[in-house]
Amino acid sequence: MRNVEIKARVDDVKRICELAEELSGGTFKLIEQDDTFYNVPNGRLKLRIFEDSSATLVRYERNDEGGPKMCDYDLLEFSSNEKEKSIKLDKMLKQCLGERGRVVKKRKLYMVGQTRIHIDTVKGLGDFMELEVVLRPEQTLEEGQKIAEDLKTKLEVKDENLIECAYMDLLEKKSHKT
């Protein structure tokens, strides 16, 4: 699976939510997420736990750069009925790989065509916007970048607010400063 992503800091949450609602033609879906990242030699690996106890193991690779960037990923989903399996998986991954850290966030999800607009409030970091243009198999990176850039403009996201890395990286940088 592939998508094109843009991530940026948000100065005015109310304004970007208004714009996202206009673009999506509807209100957001609130999603609470608790991501545990593991130490891996390549890419990133996290177990995302949702408030209903369902979970998704996410493996992804993405270059750390400011503009629209390609992200290759794989998902392994666990229903809320499989809570014990996801807990056991988390324990095994921590034992084998070690825990890199956790990212806890409240996410407002808006859908615009094939694009997910996330307005995230990240514990310990603040407010962010993330675009994920989910590419169809026949679509090129350039097509996804064009869609992402267009939405970035419509959401009034400034280039100086773009973020190159993952929330986990930002939390690590913040903890090294203190």
Automatic annotation (TrEMBL):
One of its GO terms (molecular function) is pyrophosphatase activity. Residues 1-173 form the CYTH domain. PROSITE patterns: CYTH. Pfam families: CYTH. PANTHER family: CYTH DOMAIN-CONTAINING PROTEIN, SI:CH211-156B7.4. This is CYTH domain-containing protein.
